[in-house]
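Appendix C reproduces, verbatim, an entry submitted by the partner laboratory led by Prof. M.T., so that reviewers can inspect both the input and the predicted structure.
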Amino acid sequence: MNDSPSFHMTPDEFRQAGRAVVDWIADYYERIESYPVLSQVKPGEVRSMLPPDPPQEGETFDAILADVDRIVMPGVTHWQSPNFFAYFPANASGPAILGDLLSSGLGVQGMIWATSPACTEVETHVLDWVVKMLDLPEKFLSSGDGGGVIQDSASGATLCSMLAARERITEFASNERGADGRLIAYASSQGHSSIEKAAMIAGIGRGNLRIIDVDEKYAMRPDRLQEQIEADLAQGLVPFYVAATVGTTSSNALDPLPAIGEICRKYGLWLHVDGAMSGTAALCPEFRYIHEGLELADSYAFNPHKWMFTNFDCDCFFVADRKTLIKTLSILPEYLRNKATESGAVIDYRDWHVPLGRRFRSLKLWFVIRHYGLEGLRYHVRRHVKIAQEFVRWVEGDADFELAAPAPLNVACFRHRGGDAVNQAIMDRVNAGGEMFLTHTKLDDRLTLRMSIAQTNTERRHVEKAWRLIREAAAAVTAEQA
């Protein structure tokens, strides 16, 4: 009989600790509005509270959880606060948290079908659900030539789409010899920074990413795109890829997909559409206009981990032709060979993205869809858009402020008429107060405040309070400068 300690947490200890953690999370959500939204710690402050060396002996779970309160919580910016209006939402919800917990408990490594068939088949089926939920083109269904996969983020989806486009245009020669410096990609000046990063990683080069001008609504200009393609062809270069956006990060602008798609079809370019946050709006039939022209796209991505109440990481990436994507990313070492793969009857998602390993991420999305249903998801999206549109009317009705860009959905870009310094001071003042968190962008080289209204639990009263705080800050700043 072996009497030596195992050091593992026993099932009973796990039950006790697990209940404590679930209670802690539930308590956190009940009191979340009591915390300053933006962390107030100084650089290095959290680390200074950690011991210089790891413990020689294990500590009690109570001690560990106590240090979460003492050390971690002061250094947390509360993305789940209903007063979080910065950047974009990174939403969680009860069913998503529980789905993620179950995924962690199962500890599945779902790199190929054989390593856990449920991990693959639930994901394939849930992604087909999403096609129907958003009324996406049927070519993205797994029953045809396309299909969907959960990526870590829209950045990963953009990279994979660019790699597949690179191989399609070079007939898979770039995988062998690398890009030759002649391939040209296109995105608007409002496109996400991940497009530039993808060009760097894919061997296209930052200098071969053409930035296309936008119109007065900050949407890509198709005429300028075509002019640039023609100019590059005249130089003997090889245009191959366009990244369009429905709901740009800075201003929530909607690129005109029908016109861009026709240009891509005319010149044989791969069209990738990034709907990172705004794609969720298409759950509601009245907002599906944002996807007009999507039938011309080769790939599409959006993030349930932004506005669809599914905690990070969960990006839904769809392709019209999965064979091109798989051929681009597939390497089959001997240790992964198996009968199921060789039969061709299964999907091995390791061939659909950069990492080999993958978690059972579809569980949390499955839980969210089943808990809320389409009715519940649509209710919350519509509520956020309605509140955002009311905020827009408040801005337009205030003589001291102006709307800086169209606000079709849930993001309002606005500014005080006093100029950049005043707007910066307003933002600094409201954020320092801890009652809300606001961020900015630059549009036409002018500092612009952004109000992103999409956090899971944000209600009208939170936005009404935020507007009051913004106006109070504006009055204080202008009084100081008078």
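Residues 83 and 462 are 6 Å apart (CA to CA). Additional entries are available on request from the coordinating office.
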